[in-house]
Amino acid sequence: MPEGHTIHRLALDHRSRFEGERVRVSSPQGKFTGGAALIDGQVMTGAEAHGKHLFLGFGPPPRTSDELQSRGYPHRWVHVHLGLFGKLGFGAAPAPPPTETVRLRLANPSAYADLRGPTTCALITDAEKHAIHDRLGPDPLRPGDDGTRAWQRISRSRTTIAALLLDQKVIAGVGNVYRAEVLFRHHIDPYRAGRDLTRAEWDALWADLVFLMAEGVRHNRIDTVRPEHLPEAMGRPPRVDDHGGEVYVYRRAHMGCHICGSEIRTAGLAARNLFWCPGCQPGTGGG
After folding, report:
1. Domain of 54, in residue numbers
2. What string of DSSP letters covers the chain?
């Protein structure tokens, strides 16, 4: 499942191609035909992400949000959650004939976007969109969000910090890679209870997530290794993985830690494979 930086990057990609323009909207697969018909030919007013949720706004082009409300224009959002199998791809016009797997196609005279296999593709109202935001935790990539609300839950919880980081109601957008890597970078045992973290430790984790995920948006990939631990600095081979990016522990089970040489461990936690170094992250989980 894509992590939050990917969804924020998709929001940027939609804004750069479609924002402020009238967009042709269709559902070649047929599963979104009704929703597509309601917004076909409308202006894309914006695109935003919250955690792993993407929102594409459609409506007449208001000069201000007050004007939009005062004239009673309907404002609708296409809510997309890619889930495990969803894919979103872009191309330059003219768009080729769509395949029957395309749930949603957006097109204008210069570009097109195709959505395939999402868990969610639904047309929702402002109120329904607000309800989704309300049930999600703060997102390290959303302007105005900070870690305070997440800390209020974490500091009272007996649940492991590794499980809390994946709980989208606590913090939105963090996935399995960022979970493993940020805990390693701060030498925190993934099995520590949330309430056993100090506020200083949490603030450092949050600040690092803000940095790492913003870098993920910028480079469109996850890199978590500090400069002094990169292959060229350490004289080691670069990582070879379909996911790309240099990491410390993610998907490196049974390999040696770049820092201490300990064997990286893995175990199931919160329905995902957890990775950690018992040498650099000592504690209950490290044995």
Report:
1. 4-135
2. ---HHHHHHHHHHHHHHHBTSB-EEE-TTSTTHHHHHHHTT-EEEEEEEETTEEEEEEES--SSHHHHHHTT---EEEEEE-TTT-EEEEEESSPPPPPTTEEEEEE-SSEEEEEES-SEEEEE-HHHHHHHHHHS---TTSTT--SHHHHHHHTT--SBHHHHHH-TTTSSS--HHHHHHHHHHTT--TTSBGGGS-HHHHHHHHHHHHHHHHHHHHHTS-----GGGSHHHHT-PPP--TT-S--SSTT-TTSBPTTT-PBPEEEEETTEEEEE-TTTS-SSTT-
Task: Answer yes or no: is 160 within a domain.
Answer: yes
Structurally, the chain folds into a number of domains equal to 2
pTM value? 0.91
Q: Is residue 235 part of a domain?
A: yes
Q: The domain that contains 87 carries what CATH number?
A: 3.20.190.10
Report yes or no on 286 lying in a domain.
no
User: Active-site residues: which are they?
Assistant: 2-3, 52, 272
- Tens of pLDDT, residues 44-101: 999 999 999 999 999 875 555 555 444 545 589 999 999 999 999 999 999 999 999 9
Q: Has residue 14 been placed in a domain? A: yes
